[in-house]
Every structure is written in C-alpha cells, then in structure tokens.
Known about the structure:
Layout: E1 3-9, H1 13-23, E2 31-37, E3 42-48, H2 51-59, E4 67-73, E5 88-89, E6 95-103, H3 106-117, H4 127-137, H5 142-152, E7 155-163, E8 166-175, E9 180-183, E10 187-191, E11 203-206, E12 211-215, E13 220-223, E14 229-230, E15 235-236, H6 252-258, H7 260-269, H8 287-292, E16 295-300, H9 302-319, E17 323-327, H10 328-331, E18 342-348, H11 354-365, E19 369-374, H12 380-384, E20 387-390, H13 403-423, H14 428-450, H15 452-462, E21 467-472, H16 475-491, E22 494-499, E23 516-521, H17 527-539, E24 543-549, E25 561-565, H18 574-591
Parallel strand pairs: 16-17, 16-18, 18-19, 19-20, 21-22, 21-23, 23-24, 24-25
Antiparallel strand pairs: 1-4, 1-10, 2-3, 2-4, 5-6, 6-7, 7-8, 8-12, 9-10, 9-11, 11-15, 12-13, 13-14
Helix pairs in contact: 3-4, 4-5, 7-13, 7-14, 9-13, 9-16, 13-14, 14-18, 15-18, 16-18
Bound molecules: 5-amino-5-deoxy-1-O-phosphono-D-mannitol (M6R).
5-amino-5-deoxy-1-O-phosphono-D-mannitol binds next to helix 9 and helix 16.
Amino acid sequence: MCGIVGYVGNGSAREIIIDGLKKLEYRGYDSSGIAFGTGNNLEIRKCVGRISNLETLLSKENLDSHIGIGHTRWATHGAPSDANAHPHSNMDESIAIVHNGIIENYVELKEMLINEHGVVFKSETDTEVIAHLLGVLYDGDLEEAVWKAVEMMRGAYALVAIHKDEPDKMIAVRKDAPLIAGLGKGCNFVASDIPALLKYVREIYLIENNELIVVTADDVKIYNAERKPVTREVFHVTWDVDAAEKGGYDHFMLKEIHEQPKGLEDTLVRRLNDNGEIVLEGITMTKEDIENFNKVYIVACGTAYHAGLVGKAAIEKMARIPVEVEVASEFRYRDPFVDDKTLFIAISQSGETLDTLAALREAKSKGARVLSVVNVVGSSVARESDDVFYTWAGPEIAVASTKAYTTQLMCMYMIGLYMGLTKGTITREFYDSYIEELKAIPGKLAKVLENEGAIENLAKELYRREHVFFIGRGPDSGVSLEGSLKLKEISYINSFAIAAGELKHGTIALIEQGTLVIALATQDKLFEKMLSNIQEVKARGAYVIGVAKDGNKDIEKQADKTIYIPECIDEITPLLSVVPLQLLAYYIAKLRGCDIDKPKNLAKSVTVE
Ligand code: M6R
C-alpha cells in the first residue's frame, strides 16, 4: 500500500522518480508527490490524483535535482487530498519524508508533539507525525534522528527521509513493509519494489526488517537494529523489462491473462525432473515431516484464498490430511489449533500482504512448519517461511489477479501430488497420469484464449447488468467465488457467488425475471445436479450463461448460452474454467469505461490490516 522511490546521483531525480512511481502505481494511486533537495533547501510538490497530475504540476516549472524522494499513495489516514499526499515535512520544512505503512501509536505521538513542542499539523495522516518527530529529534544528524524516531514508533512501515542540510543523503528504514536499494554507477536508489528500478539497475539489496540504510550517490550502507553494519549479498534481477510493461496490450490485466499458458508451464516444468518427479529444490520437507503432519491450514486473502480452496481439495484427496482454509484476517485473531504437527501454507502473490504475514508469524510462533506459495522472490512471506514454493507467473501488475491465481492453483495440485506420493496415499500410476493431465493444461488454456472474441461479444450483451450470480458445485464453487470477485472488483457490478446447492436455502429469493446467473457445470460427477440447479433458477426467470466441458451438450437444453472449455479431469477444471470468467470481467469492465488495471479503492499490495 503506497509506493516509494528515492534517488541520489548524477541524473535527473525528477525523471527517474516519476518513472519509478508510474511502475508502482499498482500499490496505490490516489495522490502522489516528490521532494527535491536543492542544495540548501527542500522543494515539495504534491497533488491528489494519478501520477499524470503530478507530471502536469511539475511541467509548470523547471524544478529538478540530483536527489529526491517520491511517493504514490493509497489512503489509510485521511482522505485522498493535496494536503494528505506525501512527502510530508516538519515545521520549518527542513526535513521531508515519504512513508508506506501505518504508525499505530500516531495519536499518542501527535498529542506529545502538539503539547510539548507546539507542532501545528497540516494533514490528517499518521505520516506527518514522523516528519515532526524527526524535526524535534534532529540535532545535526538525520541518521541519528531516524534511529531515535524508530525507537518511539510502533507499526509496520518503510520510510525515506532527506534533510536540507545533508543534501547528498537519504536515510531509509524498513519495518514490516517492503524496501529495496538499487545499486547504480554514480547513483543509488531506494524503492518499494523492483519494477520501479528495472529501467535503471539490475543489482539490488533486499533490505531486511528493522534495518536502516544510508544511501549516497557512491554507497549504500546497511545497519541492523543494533546499529551494526551488515554485509548483504547483491541480488541480481533477471526479469525482462518487457515483462513489467504492457507489451502491446491495452491493459496489464489482458496481457497477464494471456501470459497464463506460459506461467503454468514454467510453474510445472521447472519443478519436474526427466522422470516426471516433482523436485522440491530449496524445500526441505522430508517423508517424516509429511507423515508427522496431522493437519494443514491454508491461509491467504482474496484471490489467493480462492486458490487455497482448491488446494484443500487436492491435499485432502491425495495426502489424506484434513485441511482448513481460512482468510488470514480471521485466522490470526481466533487462537487456532496449531502445533508442531501442523503444516501452515501461506499463499500470496506479493508476499507482502500484512494479514497473511501476521497469520504466518502467529502459526510459526505456535510451532507450525511454514510452507509458502509466493510469486515475488525475496518478499517478506517468502523470507519468513521455512520453505517456499515459488509460482513462476512473472511480475503481476494489474490489481486484479489472474496469472498469479492459476499458477497458485498449479502449485496446490503439485503440493498435493508430492505429499500424496511421498506418503504413499496415491500410487505412482495415479501420480503419473495426473502429471500428464497437468502438462496438457497450457495447451488447453491456449485454446480457451482462442475463444476470446466470443467472450467479448458476450460482454457486449451483458455489460449493462447491475447484478450477477455465480453458482457451481465442488471445484466450480471456488471458481464461482473467483469469477465473482474478478467481475465486481474491476467492473463495479454487484456480483455474488454461492454454492449451487445452497441457493434454495435462501438466496434463490433474489432470482427474478432476467436475473443473470453464470452457472459453472464442469464437473462430470456433479453435472446432473448442476442441470437441476440451472433448471431451478430458469424456472424463476433467470438468464443463464453456462460453463461446461466440451461435449457436455446437454447443458444447452437448460442454459441460454454456453461457454465450453476443453476436456480434462474434474479436479483440475479450475485451471481452465476461470479464464473465460477473467475475460468476461475484463471486457465488461472495458465496455463500462472502468479503469481496469487500477480499480477504485483498491491497491495491488495490501500491506495494512
Ligand atoms: O498479494 P496477495 O496474493 O497476498 O494478495 C491477496 C489479495 O489482496 C489479492 O489476491 C486480491 O484479492 C486480488 N488482487 C484480487 O484480484
């Protein structure tokens, strides 16, 4: 939540920071700003709205410098406004700071600053408290002031500060919010995430929790919480710059939908050896460990939680261990039954979702073994887990998750297969045929994508609807939740997902003449039952779009229109059936004129509770 970029060196801070902020807009985009160090002063420019507004503001004057810090905001304390936008400064405007996260004791600190130091606040943010705190603690040494402020602040944050009298230095701190340093030639950078710096540097330091860094044009010094210098290995970024750009597509979301065949292939094949065995390189889970587990918790948020629902079915079926799936914000506050016989699986694209991270810490403190399924290498969830099963989705920029979800599903099937085979609860024959099914998925998914034109046409027919129901049974019920989330988050249509068998227990009261129902009927075992559920809503006037496997033509007797997906075993249909729903959501949102990659009120990475 919120993106930070800082630069010091021989180039144009303005150009580099604006460019970096644009790459971080996925983290928040309700306002933005930059502070420049001009040698003997600080100049701050900020405004509400997208980065383009800031560019317009800056274009009115010739302001630039060799040092600057920038910020793109997702509001937590105080509405989006010019005043609440970052950077914030202290009373005499000698210090400027940008901040990502929350200062939990900001009320207490604010009262102290007002009562004891006569500070006058200009914004409603918790961040401004940090600027004033640094102002009263400053005694000729910004680094020292930041160390002292850190001791007084509670919460999760990453922040960067500059001082007008120390014009060649940025001081940054990380505590439970992402922060990296980019290593250039004659220049150095700080940022919240790698895409912000990819155009300029490939060598970075991943900053750890409670570390403070001193960044000058020639050096990046890292100190741990005890103020001892730390030596950090340089992390070399291998991503293609294009992977973080739109590559000819209108939106990142559409590009990422189309990247799914490759993401799935990479996720599967990179962990298979020549005998088709899953190689858990870097994962130390032994046969004894797996036999020791008597329970699995899968914990995640949003789309990643929906992937967890599929993971539950896969692990229970193959490894015969009871699995509970829970949203992270609920798990952490209810004293769950976790001990050293528990396997805790955290799923997270960003690896920075605070609720998931906090749940992971809770489980770890109770002795659970932590395995995470994460996309962003070196993220907090990855670093705090015992083992990491990386998805190979590549950078996901659109707020609406697509390729991260399908690659997470792939990992869940693989984890289930690995545990089942190792434990002996599935046979090698079963395992081999399942792997063959998974290997065929990228090709089948490419076929689903060939149907894009038909789905776009369907969107033209449906985009004015204001209410939609998604129904399904078994794995289709989890996909219904994901299809519904995709539609509501980018098109703002009121959509609702429910297990088809539950409809008659209340929700069917909402079905009336013309109500749109999207009915997933991809499960051979449950096909007849789904046809009955479709009949029930049809009898009350619903307009039904069915999703079924090729060949299950009987659905056409009930549904008004049908989208077909290629034949595959029932358990893995979510890998295919979610894709038409992603495309439908995309084209409906496009026709409604929505800002698809940056939906209102949302941010890609939710690093606040
Ligand atoms: O980065 P994470 O996977 O931990 O994010 C969890 C959710 O915030 C995320 O899946 C969210 O629901 C999606 N952006 C929705 O498309």
